[in-house]
Amino acid sequence: MIPVPGLEFYITLIVYILVFLIITLSYNMAYGYTGIPDFGRAMAAGAGGFLCGLLPGRLMFYLLGFQGDYLENIHLVIDKINAVLSENPLLSIMLLTLTVFLGACAGGALGLLASLPIFRGIRLFYLGVTLLAIQIGFNTIMYHWPVLLRGELGVPIPDPFKWLIRYSSPALPPGVLRLIGIIVIAGVVLLITIFYLTSVSRSPLGRVLKAIRDDETSVAALGRDVRGLYVKVMVVSYAFTGAAGAIFAFYQGYVVGLHFDRVEWTFWPIAMVILGGLANYKGTAAGTIFFITLKRLIIFYKANLEPILPFSPIWLESLLLGLILILVLIYRPRGLFPEKPEISLSREEIERIREKIKRKRSE
Amino acid sequence: MIPLLLQNAIVFANILSLMAISATLALSKTNVPNFAVATFGTIGVYITFTCVKIFRLPLYSSLPFCLIFGGLIGVAIYRLMIKPLRERGATREEIMIATLGLDIFLIAILNIYADYLTRAFKVMARDFTFSAYDFSIAGLNGVFVASTIFFVATMVSLHLIFTKTSLGIALKAMGEDQSLAECQGINTDILCLITWFIVGALPAAAGVFFPVNWISNPTVSLFIVVSVFASCVLGGFSTIYDAAAGSYIIAMAQVLLIPYLANIVGVWILPYGFLVALLIMILTIVIFPKGLYGLPWNTIGEFLLKLFNYVKEALRVKA
Amino acid sequence: MLELRGVNAGYGKHQVLFDVTMNLKKSGITVIIGPNGAGKTTLFRTIMGLTNIYSGLILFNDYNIVNLKPNRIVKLGISYVPQRGSFFENLTVRENLLLGGYILKEEERHSIMKEVLELFPVLARKDYINRKASRLSGGERKMLAIAMGLMKKPRLLLLDEPTEGLMPKLTIEVYKKIREIHEEMGTQIVMTAEKAQLSLEIGDEAFLLVSGQIKDHRTTQEMLNDPNLREKYFGVYG
User: Fold this and answer.
1) Cα distance between residue A139 and residue A264, in whole Å
2) Do B96 and A311 touch (CB under 8 A)?
């Protein structure tokens, strides 16, 4: 019997889509506009996500005046914090907003680091290698330094959606309201992202960014502050990703230093952006929705795939990711929805004007 | 007598060198930044595993199989992925992303293969070592002797190919300007295939030595890839000699320096071993981005000579 | 010897050559003149198989060479000396020359090198031959490029702007050398030139290429005497 996805599947799907839309759209801004394949992107999501494991728990720990060692009694402490939060919607929302905001700040700070002048002017390939390596180093420190996230044990995160359970009805599966809470906050951040992106792409800034990608020197020669713009794009893009990481950590309720790995948070987003088409928001969104749905369906039908596939379905995802990246780059390098060349006047119009000038000259 | 730790460091240096040479050749001759290079090594690990555990062959007799199969895989990757990408005019960044995809794909395949081995032959195909299969001569580990001999043989034969044959000069020319090389009548397609045979074969050969000293599984490449690229960057991504020199420096720092530091500051530092490689890489990029290759060796040589003469003079005056 | 029939070619979707038809007779130096961006370099690259050819035929001794790879075309006897980047900067002069004769057999390569070096004594000097090619001066670079082209013992030599960027004295020297090569070795030569006058003086027949189309084909003498062409394409430089 093939199972049919239920309400919970769809709601979780929406959570994933919203979180990854924030990430891919902001990634697209940085990659599509500056032409820099940023292989350290998982770091930005990690900055927000790990911050969730580090900050809100400790913050509440001190605010509520608990005694003793925080990390040693963490499960007990978080349970107590959650009890307080479930009584206190306002406090919950404040904690949530603050953490997501700080997650964005942490991401932005990393973006600032990644756009340091020492990384500029080096060959793009070196930049890719370096950012990738730094990201691996970042995850290693997060995982192996027990003071941060208790190493392989990981830490639980306070749940700012506990108070929603009060409004739940027996008709709804448990936990659905919590997911809806996450959808709301993810939706808000996504709207801010989209608002920022559309305002950028319509503004002179967007045009300048595209020009930087095509020819940096000429933009600088035209008197534009290339360096400043570059930093701005990197910081904003990393900040949105950081916020998305924080939201995802809240969704999981738990974070380990191994989370926010490069496959899930760098390579998949790159595949989504490439499949959609660079510097094209519609394409990126389509690519993201397509891939996320595919991935969730694979997880959902894992048990049904088991007998059909000659191998364990655990590997199906990375098999597909690798294949799709290669095939898209070979056959559809500009994505399913390629960026349209920007011609301010249509060809015919230009031809007509040319004719007119010619006629005038001959007169 | 060579201390065990130093032996291990040299084994690691040999392994890194083989991979770094492969990555350097791929970039300097065919303009492909190959992120999957460390996974090519894991392929070698599993070829060795198959030879040793399934076909019951002696450990080092799997070396020719690794060279041949690894080389053929390299050739296949060139034909099926790199060539179509280049024919449609892909940028170096796009090829770089494609090799990342290849890396993920190959790791998945290796995982599936490990599953298959476990199921079909009831062997432990993950987290294994081959230390039990190694021999020792005169107090030296077999893997130390074998990997060093193989490394030296590789260096000598590559050196001879690149400097003494017209194939070598043609390869050099292709690395500099492919279409101009074609206009000299050089069949760059065949040269690329030869290069990619070497690119695939060398890391696979390194896969014979790796599991003797270190625990191996399909994802082991994730931990080596940073060291490999650090070696290449330190070397300058230009010649095989610089790649080997870079590898030796990185391997010594990683295998000798970290345990030494652990004695002083505590064992907590051990998991951060590869951060040393990362640090060296970043410092290289910042301070001398062209790596060892780009250093002004003439000036340095003259300076050292002057220093040497000066010291000699001073000593003589003293005497 | 070489014949183009209705060739349309370009880079990707960007078409540069439009219906180019030309027939190069045996023997003689052919000059292709035309303004900047007319497609002279693209014409050579098309012959060598380095562009996308949409339609048309390119016949070399009645053998269609469209869709052949450059290394095959070289083996048929066409040698191409690009305008820029015509040799390998990081290799020595000797290595460059030997690469130029890559298609020849080992012994033949060395005997040809001797012949070629006799034509270009400046490259044969002891301190030059083992010098990195990137250290050569402008005139020597052009000489090396042409020498590399000759190393293939070509039947047809394509020279793209052999005197670009050279001072007038050197320009005349290079053109003399080209004439010498043609007369001594009997190699058929096609060259492009923006400084049209001098090249026309040593050439036999000429084509005028404008906006990717052949607009004129006459002997060089006739071209030189055409005041209309003179004003339009020869420029102040003469």
Assistant:
1) 13
2) no
ipTM for the predicted complex comes to 0.87
Span A91-123, pLDDT tens digits? 889 999 999 999 999 999 998 888 776 666 666
Residues 58 to 87 of C: which have CB under 8 A from any B CB? 69-71, 74-75, 80, 82, 85-87
B302 three-state secondary structure: helix
Are residues B208 and B57 in contact, defined by beta-carbon separation less than 8 angstroms?
A: no
Q: Are strands A155-156 and A254-255 parallel, antiparallel or unpaired?
A: antiparallel
Q: Tokens at residue B88, please? A: 């449609």
Q: Packing angle between helix C138-150 and helix C93-100, nearest 10 degrees? A: 30
Please write the tens of the pLDDT for every residue from A14-51.
999 999 999 999 988 887 766 777 888 899 999 999 99
Contact C112, C77 (CB under 8 A): no
Nearest to A37 among B97, B111, B222 (CB): B97
Residues 2-61 of C with CB under 8 A from B: 12, 48, 50
Contacts of A140 (CB under 8 A, 6+ apart): A257, B271, B272, B274, B275
- Tell me the residue ranges of DSSP E strands in C61-185: 63-64, 78-81, 156-160
pLDDT tens for residues C163-210? 887 788 888 888 888 888 888 888 888 988 876 777 888 888 888 888
Residues in CB range of B131: below 8 A, 6 or more apart = B212, B213
Residue B178 distance to chain C (closest CA, Å): 10
**Interface contacts (A, B; CB < 8 Å):** 120
A345: alpha, beta or left? (left if phi > 0; alpha if psi -120 to 50): beta
What is the tens place of the pLDDT at every residue in C192-205? Answer: 887 677 788 888 88
3-state secondary structure A93-126: HHHHHHHHHHHHHHHHHHHHHHCCHHHCCCCHHH
Give pLDDT, residue A241.
Answer: 94
> Whole-angstrom Cα distance, residue B172 to residue B191?
10
Provide the terminal-to-terminal Cα distance of chain A, rounded to the nearest Å.
Answer: 82
Is some CB atom of chain C closer than 8 A to the CB atom of B91? Answer: no
Q: Are C57 and C8 in contact (CB under 8 A)?
A: no
C101: DSSP letter:
T
Question: Which tokens sit at B227?
Answer: 């060291």
CA-to-CA dists, residue A313 to A57, A298, B101, B111, B275, angstroms:
36, 8, 18, 11, 33
Nearest to C75 among B89, B185, B189 (CB): B185
The tokens for A34 are: 């500056």
Neighbours of B78 (CB within 10 A): 23
Tell me the C-alpha distance between A78 and A69, whole Å: 13
CA distance B310 to B198: 46
Contact residues for C22 (Cβ-Cβ < 8 A; gap 6+): C3, C4, C207, C214, C217
Predicted confidence at residue C237, as pLDDT, reads 45
Count of all residues that appear for chain C in the document: 238
Beta bridge partners of C60: C2, C63
Model confidence, pTM: 0.87
Structure tokens of A154? 């990981």
Calculate how close chain B gets to C126, using CA atoms only, in Å: 21
Distance CA B11, CA A95 (A): 52
Q: How many degrees, rounded to 5, is the angle at CA A170 between CA A168 and CA A173?
A: 75
Compute the 3-state secondary structure of chain C and give helix, strand, coil in percent, each to the nearest 5. Answer: 40, 30, 30
Type of residue at B177:
D
Restricting to C residues 127-186, those with a Cβ less than 8 Å away from any Cβ of B are 148, 152
> Does residue A51 contact residue A246 with C-beta atoms inside 8 Å?
yes
Closest-CA residue of chain A to B233: A126
